[in-house]
Automatic annotation (TrEMBL):
<dbReference type="InterPro" id="IPR001155">
    <property type="entry name" value="OxRdtase_FMN_N"/>
</dbReference>
<dbReference type="InterPro" id="IPR013785">
    <property type="entry name" value="Aldolase_TIM"/>
</dbReference>
<dbReference type="InterPro" id="IPR045247">
    <property type="entry name" value="Oye-like"/>
</dbReference>
<protein>
    <submittedName>
        <fullName>Alkene reductase</fullName>
    </submittedName>
</protein>
<feature type="domain" description="NADH:flavin oxidoreductase/NADH oxidase N-terminal">
    <location>
        <begin position="12"/>
        <end position="344"/>
    </location>
</feature>
<dbReference type="Pfam" id="PF00724">
    <property type="entry name" value="Oxidored_FMN"/>
</dbReference>
Length: 360
């Protein structure tokens, strides 16, 4: 008796795709994940981080989205976050991008400003920056103090932060990144502008949802000028890390308004973020299905995806790329395991978060 031939189950997930200059060997994307292993004072990344990202590319992941990288010293929300606004930081990231490229991978830098979700002790004694002077509930990650009272940004502050994003996009190119992702999700600075809970401004940066998206649009325009639309992704979400109960009053309308904003500034790659990819949120559709209903461009899917779910989502064209977060941390040889049909280990933060490398 011959062996039973099983058909490879993840054909769509392993289908190559060309996006602008990116030659992606499959659809497997590493979701952005803060690791807190950068040098705290300088925001420089070291050789361990080079090897950490190299290993992901060597495993076969096609697109790596880095951990959130701060765009200025005031953008930082906890200890040991990397930056991309000094020359030393750029030089340190160049080693990462070289390593990833040596292994045939593509890597983009996630640009991040935490806004009010920090404390003055972490950002040189300055008050946290926010659209309005509204303090967040909760505690600073790994610091433990309550979030600090932020100050409302002036228009001059806003223009400076937009310039920081632009400078970091330029630095990303200098550091050899293949593009950038703007972190507009999860309740951080851009998302604080997007939400009516945190943005009560009466100037052009406040008002209706489409008006509140002005800051995000200006950041995106500035970044796209540098990296181009084919190399720029925007991450956005309904959920906020600090306001668990937050919901849009009409989810589909909100998504449509976001997409209008993205079209206005010429964005081509969306990374809509949810915690549970297959959760129906409105009109019998999931978040990503609602985005797809109104958007023909590229979509990166994410949110507790497993390989089967991801493969189907790509096959039915809801998403084009599938980002995995915790499964990639739990399985350092994630792609190899998928290819060989080896069972995946489930994520355990105690085991998989405290170190960059461990014996699997
Ligand atoms: C340890 C950890 C760090 C994260 N850091 C970031 C981050 O820096 N930027 C971001 O946009 N999302 C961040 N996320 C969210 C992930 O990108 C992803 O959306 C989330 O983990 C859901 O995907 P998963 O279920 O495949 O893990 C983080 C998640 C984890 C588990």
């Amino acid at each position: 008796m011959g062996e039973m031939k099983m058909e490879f189950p993840y054909k769509s997930l392993f289908e190559p795709i060309q996006i602008g200059t990116w030659n992606l060997r499959n659809r497997i994307t590493m979701a952005p994940m803060t690791r807190c292993f950068a040098e705290d004072e300088s925001g420089v990344v070291d050789q361990d981080i080079v090897e950490y990202y190299r290993a992901k590319a060597a495993d076969g992941i096609s697109l790596i989205i880095t951990e959130g990288i701060t765009v200025s010293s005031r953008a930082k929300g906890t200890f040991n976050l990397p930056g991309l606004y000094t020359n030393d930081q750029v030089v340190s990231w160049k080693k990462v991008t070289d390593a990833v490229h040596e292994e045939g991978g593509t890597i983009i830098a996630q640009l991040w400003h935490v806004g009010r979700l920090t404390h003055r002790d972490l950002i040189g004694g300055f008050a946290p920056q926010a659209p309005s002077a509204i303090r967040a509930n909760g505690h600073v990650h790994r610091y433990g103090k309550p979030f600090d009272q932020p100050e409302a940004m002036s228009v001059v502050d806003i223009k400076k932060v937009i310039q920081s994003f632009k400078l970091c996009a330029e630095n990303a190119v200098r550091a050899g990144f293949d593009g950038v992702e703007v972190h507009g999700a999860h309740g951080y600075l851009i998302d604080q502008f997007n939400s009516d809970v945190t943005n009560t401004r009466s100037d052009i940066y406040g008002g209706s949802l489409s008006q509140r998206l002005t800051f995000m649009k200006e950041v995106l325009s500035a970044v796209i000028e540098v990296t181009g639309a084919n190399r720029t992704s925007i991450r956005f979400s309904e959920h906020k890390d600090d306001i668990k109960e937050f919901q849009w009053s009409d989810k589909e309308e909100a998504i449509k308004t976001f997409i209008e904003a993205f079209n206005e500034v010429g964005v081509k790659i969306l990374h809509p973020s949810v915690n549970q990819y297959d959760k129906v949120i409105m009109n019998e559709r999931t978040f990503h299905q609602l985005v797809r209903k109104h958007w023909d461009g590229l979509i990166i899917g994410v949110g507790n995806l497993n390989p089967e779910l991801a493969d189907n989502a790509i096959k039915e064209n809801t998403i084009n790329l599938a980002a995995f977060g915790r499964l990639i941390l739990a399985n350092p040889n994630f792609v190899y395991k998928l290819k060989k049909g080896i069972k995946l280990e489930s994520y355990d933060s105690k085991k998989h978060l405290s170190k960059l490398f461990y014996n699997s």
